[in-house]
## 1
Amino acid sequence: MRPFEFQRAASESEAIAAGAAGARYLAGGTTLVDLMREEVETPEKIVDINRLPLNYIRATDEAIVIGALARMSEVAANQDVRRLQPLIPETLTEGASPQLRNVASIGGNLLQRVRCPYFRMLDAPCNKRVPGSGCSAIDGLNAGHAILGTSEHCVATHPSDLAVSLVALGAMLSLKGPRGERTIPVEELFRLPESTPHLEHTLEPGELIVEVHIPNGPYARKARYLKVRDRSSYEFALVSAAAALHVENGIIKEVRIAAGGVGTRPWRMNAVEQALVGKPAARASYEIAAAVSTEETRPLSHNGFKVKLLPATIVRALEMAGDVA
């Protein structure tokens, strides 16, 4: 690890000023510290933001509001979250080991870096680490890589399980930065790689994620997360699906679906949703709709299995959501 300057921010304005000047924010540090040890990331200045008053969970009639510094374990155990947004604690539990959940923050989870092995290999070309150097995964070992939203410059999947479920639930982010406050959908936080894969999110220099707002829609209580992986614990998704259903008299009135492990960002399944509205909440409907999820896929040499696994995962997630009492 290379030497760096360290600062503890006493206020949001102090943190924002330091971030705008190029400092990196530190919350749980479960990604950043690892990357610094491996010298994949070499920031000159770190700003600890853990003293900021952003560790809270509030339930309102309209939404669950979570401060960006709330720890994953705290959110997963919160009774209001478990009652109103059961998809969130299920996803958090699937997303990391207990030790990591005790440390990792909600805001940091959304901004974690990719787990492509070539990103961490300093002797391998990687456009995320060194823009313009190339993408080793395209012709390399790519079984865990993306089949949606890829470019000739990057095929890495976005790693956050939580982001998938927040996209499915239509969650919003409150941000605060040098130019003031703004609110964006979680879905708009993440960039496609295109020709600039080193730019992974839409935050401006110095912007902080302050809160996550998760609306209490009628679909929110009838939702499930399914994660398919190589092993049953502490592993990233090969394919995952978050499905939320609003069903009346056996007919789907509203449905929201997002997938992970397949896209360069959490992937909203808009076409699948459109194919389901007004249809019976039954496996036959799910299978017909899920078939359209693969229309824009671009498999690589080792991850073609994801093309078949994606619709099957969506179907099973919908079945699981439909079984929620």
## 2
Amino acid sequence: MTHTPVPFPEGFLWGASTAAHQIEGNNTNSDWWVKEHSADTHIQEPSLDACDSYHRWREDMDTLARLGFTDYRFSIEWARIEPAEGQFSRAELAHYRRMVEGAIERGLRPMVTLHHFTVPQWFEARGGWTADGATDLFARYVAACAPVISEGVSHVCTINEPNMIAVMAGQAKRGDIGFPPAGLPTPDDETTQAVIAAHHAAVKEVRTINAGIQVGWTIANQAYQALPGAEDVTGAYRHPREDIFIEAARGDDWIGVQSYTRTKIGPEGPIPASDDVERTLTQWEYYPSAVGYALRHTAEVVGGDMPLIVTENGIATSDDSRRADYYAGALNEVASALEDGLNIQGYLAWSALDNYEWGSFKPTFGLIAVDLETFERTARPSAVWLGSLGRIRELPRTAG
């Protein structure tokens, strides 16, 4: 077995990711805040203060920069910027602009996500993505973000994991609660088309703001693996849940690949992982190689030389040594894909912080631990190791 590090490509993004609702706290005008506090909610616990990163973002960026990371992906909250329909908050736009400038001052390149699962209450009340005029409303919000992203932001993500938005919309229409033991529920067709239209409109708005911004979106990749005789079943299962969204990225400047585990598909459909496999705190199979499958499949579908960026990848665990091992395995896959000629332009871990994982604080994904009582931040050993790779600008590569 040999260890041959792979140098970062020129301009390689090396960082960590977060999402506004999961770390900011008190996003009281968002649809998720309403869901968390409704009388009949199935959500385990509310986000409340989350990590209080709305006030502590400087400390978070200081820590990432000190560790050696060069990039930080964070989202801006539509519900803060447009708390009531057609009414835009100059104070909140200025807040997010300060974050952009703060990142740059610390040597962190900001990647800004415009939508990460949450929408304003008023947008949800109108019917959400499938309501009349929803695409125009999203485009108007994107245009209003010009003061935040017009200068110093090289990469913008329009919508995070649109396939999961469509999946959750399908569940809501059917009245389903929870996910099946393996695979994803059927996405809602109408929502699929709506978010694709919203993405295309947002791309145009971003390019109008600044033609130099690299704009794309990020897909939740399940690393579908066909068992013998199930190739056609796998393709039919995957397309509405993943490939249609990858195909919609053609013409974008990059596409985000987000993967955590794999899904095996047999002749009858998804097959649950066996009882004896190692599982993470989210009960997903521990499978660091997932990101390699996701990168290769995405490149195959989108075609050409489309730039790929790993915008999320990580593990929820209480054992930081397993976190470090997971990242080592995942980065080995990234290095291998680079060696094979894939145009991979960045790797951003999920997540910079322990955060609110859409119903619970228990799944700890963070490179940086957060005490939810005191909000004290503590960089884990895995963060120190991962950040150090940014200084040497090399990916670990094990061959043998």
## 3
Amino acid sequence: MASAIFRIAALWALGAFLPRAFAGFDPGASNNIAIYWGQNSINRAGGQQRLATYCSNSPVNIIPLAFLHVIKNPTSLNFANAGDNCTTFEGTQLLRCPEIEEDIQFCQSLNKTILLSIGGATYTEGGFASPEEAITWANRLWAMFGPPPAAPPSADILRPFGSAVIDGFDMDFEATSSNMEPFAAALRRLMDDSAAGETPSRRYLLSAAPQCPFPDHAMGAMLDAVGFDFVAVQFYNNYCGAPSYVPGAPAQNNFNFGTWDQWARTASVNRKVKVLLGLPASPSAAGTGYVSGEQLRQVIAYARGYGSFGGVMAWWLMFGDRDMSQAYGNPGFLEGIRSALGVPLPPITTVTTTSTRTSQVPTTTLSTSTVTLTKTTSTNGPTPTGPLVPQWGQCGGMGYNGPTQCQPPFTCVYLGDWWSHCA
């Protein structure tokens, strides 16, 4: 446990030194990259690391936390193995997660956008009985995850992330639910009012993840009624998915990014809403829809021709689980997205930690490590021979028998017993 503490302490120190080139969601850009975190969908030991791990030296600038899968009493969160480091509030099953609280604040120090995704495939409440109930629960969620109130909150308002404040909410409802329009509208209003009163002012975001058939059967009415900042359309598992794109065709009969672009420009409440190209992050991530290599590059290049294009959302989706354990577990996929979007490489920093302590301590204690930071600007020593692993590709881990040397200037970084990658 101590070694994990020292690594995360090093990440905190690193946050103070890294430049702010990799900011959060940019509404004026077409190279945003968003990946879900929280479900360990790769389903192996060490597959999902702490949230802070994916914020460091990473081109990903938007991370929705998946999922808040029960809204009403009892409100419930599920973060797979990351929940093992949480406790529960007394007398409830609601998670209290100091480690995630800590990591949210660290990621935000690197200008990453951290959203809380509501719903998922396991959401079964069916929405709200009335608009009034929907608004009541929007207010409660904002009290739980938005800025802490100036006065002590009421005893029944519990904050799973403590003092951390998320950057907004993501809607991921996959079945028709009642009174979602007033729910989303209330969250939009609460976030906008809060942002207007903050100094310096900030922007809280509202996003959604509809499926590509238009209009989306579960969230179409909500998307038409409320101003969203971006929608990450699921272009897979449907006839309109990314594999349906025909290179060079004058018209696309099935791949319908153009339909979503028209909605964004002419029908959405926010006419500047961005449309992100949602893709599965591995070959096993969906029944259909995975593209890579030249096919990935061509689909992104085509979508970039539309004015609403805002970047790529990469995810895993199998029984509702989707997160970056798959993207980081699929060598070269994230690098292919980064390259196609023209996102520059993040600064490469080597972090060395030392400590004389041997006893176990709680994971929220970070102040006892000694951290040495060294900016790597060149690589000395003999030139590697044999195949070289690209950035983010796997270079080590239990059971791994592939190449272990990284393309310069990258180095092999240990992220767990089952996974090391080039960064």
## 4
Amino acid sequence: MGLELRQQLKLSQQLVMTPQLQQAIKLLQLSRLELVETVQQELLENPFLEETENEAVSEVEDDRSATEDANDALVKDADWENYLGEFSSTSKQSHSRDAEIPEEGMSFEARLASKPSLEGHLSWQMRLSNFTDEEIAVGDVVVGNLDHNGYLKASVDEIMSMIPVEAELVEKVIRKMQLLDPVGIAARTPQECLLVQMKVAGFDSDPVLVSLVTDHLEDLEKHRYKPLVRKFKISMEDLKSYLDLLQTLDPMPGTNFSSTEPHYVSPDVFVYKFGDEFVIMLNDDGLPSLQMNSFYVDNLKASNEKEKDYFSEKMRSAAWLMKSLYQRQRTLYKVVESIVRFQRDFFEEGVTKLKPLILKEVAEDISMHESTVSRITTNKYVSTPHGIFELKFFFNSALDLGDGSQVGSESVKALIKQLISEENPKKPLSDEKIGEILKEKLDVNIARRTVAKYRSAMGIASSSKRKEFF
């Protein structure tokens, strides 16, 4: 068989993701705060980009600064010490001291106190208590093996493998740490945590209370009260007093020092009702308005090919960024406008009127690809007359009604939550009963297991756990 080289022409098509297209897709799925940060970074890196200035705002600021300068001059020239006379509460020395160290000279971060961590709080207490150096070393290992609830997740043997000490010393350090603030920290089980807190509070002398914590926490959780009343030969009122006392204890002492930071939401879009129509306003607060820097465009001249390529690249990048930002805002507006059309009943009356909706319907309505709609609705929030919601919230599955129409699953969830909030705590509604009520109100055939699925998704306990006996 002979081998030879041949040339062959072949035509083919393939999708190439240019850097500009990648940038446009990236901007689509950024949240508003991430978008502001990205634009600010581009302003720092690209000399051909600049932020447009509002002349009217500048004039107002100039007038304001002139007024402030005049007021400052008046304050400095006035003889306030003679004016106040004997009613002056501060001395001249304090005035000179304030002038030497103005508060404006301090950074904003210097005025804020950092949130204490659980590790730092325990380490600080150990070093101020009667812990020896060896006990502090063991305590540091124990602190490093605590979970976010404050429970010790390492066994004594595992701690001994990390630091060469005796088992007795490890147990001693754990017991001493459990008496630190918060009390019950470094416990291995919820029973141990509650027993330590009971000992510190002086509740450990009651054998019934100790037995409830040691052997019957599961029975208390599942509201199995009658067997406990018979076992301990006490009344329901006595059992209720024990439960009230246990509720004063903290089974998760480490949660107050959780490192989880709150998640703040800034709406990307505002929807207001004006008359019979809904007005859509994009939130441009903090988002710079960009333009090409005319000074660099007109005056910069490249001395060599390398500089010419750099200038051309930065100019193209600036132009593409402005175009991508405009396209993003335009797409966001069109998607929200389509959602308002489809979900007008929601904006009029609330969550119970939310209709079933899928991405494909909005994509066809605004003549865009479904993936574009998916990206622009990711991490975006809209402020409505009924609260702030993620754009993904408006897309939900459908449930068939008896008359052939459909209702959104989120509407059913909202009605389930409303029914449970209005129920009698001593006779909570079962999932089967909720299904019957939904059939009466919405004429929807919904199975008991579907009600249970929706209830669990909303974090609502079953009827047996919601029942109150007292």
